[in-house]
């Protein structure tokens, strides 16, 4: 639970300048439109500037040189949205998935190592040889497989599953229904019959990684699937075997990464994007939602391939013309050839 903070306390904690009454208490965060006394709001987009005059917040988080209404206190920082995120963390009221200690209904193998101040909730299973480091939190119904390693202060919400031998760093967060280390889709075909290829690698996850609800990260076939430090992965994503994701990349919901693709640092991948297997995307690439990436990207920038929705009649006309593109291309090519011969 959050502590008691004054405006000046918050300013000192996030490296901002307090303007106005720094002694007033702040108990929560809210939007400019909904905030009341004791709450702090933020202005990060000029289109909400008109709400600043009418807000009932005790204080606001703003950029330098923003004109404040008379009597309204503020935290002034270069990045108000990041400032809001930091303040919201300090004032966070989200309950813990489990209380410190081992719930009587949990099953913890005698060979597992449990660190200091660990919280293990009801009906958790911790298998042989697993390591749960100091201050980790394991919510109700989680399964921690054999020889899994969970880093310090990492938190699992309810019903997260870790298959055998997976490794997770410190300060990570896994939301309910995430499955880490299931088999990758590895099969060989012999005369029309499928032969399963055992998936012998691991999933190795760095520090400060967040994985959304019902997201699946498959174990490697031979080498490991690797999620590097600082990555954030949204709900219902599929990360296939032997994928490598470099540091601080963000992946929005329902995205699919096929096997053995490599994603660079600081990439932003929009929702419902599909990325082909065995290709590489360089650092600092932004991919718009609903894109289909079938070839490597080796230059930073913004990429897109999604087709926006259109009225049904227009879509049908365009669809019919799309089927005629090859015929049209051949006709144009023939005309160009004829024109060249005439000259």
Structure description:
With 343 residues, the chain is α/β, with parallel strands linked by helices. It has 3 domains: 86 residues, Udp-n-acetylmuramoylalanyl-d-glutamate--2,6- Diaminopimelate Ligase, Chain: A, domain 1; 203 residues, UDP N-Acetylglucosamine Acyltransferase, domain 1, CATH 2.160.10; 31 residues. The protein has an 11-stranded parallel sheet, with no helix packed on it. Strand 22 and strand 23 form a beta hairpin.
As for the number of domains, it is: 3
CATH architecture of the largest domain: 3 Solenoid
Oligomer: single chain
Biggest sheet statistics = 11 strands, parallel
CATH topology type of the largest domain: UDP N-Acetylglucosamine Acyltransferase, domain 1
Counting H and I runs of at least 4 residues, what is the number of helices?
5
Number of strands: 39
* Main structural class: alpha/beta
Q: Give, in spatial order, the strands making up the sheet with the most strands.
A: 8-11-14-17-20-25-28-31-34-37-39
* Measured distance between first and last alpha carbons: 82 Å
Mean pLDDT: 96
CATH class of the largest domain: Mainly Beta
Radius of gyration: 26 Å
* CA-based shape: flat
Low-confidence stretches: none
Q: Considering the protein shown, what is the CATH homologous superfamily of the largest domain?
A: Hexapeptide repeat proteins
Instruction: Report the portion of residues in β strands.
Output: 25-35%
- Which range best describes the helical content: under 10%, 10-25%, 25-40%, 40-55%, 55-70% or over 70%? 10-25%
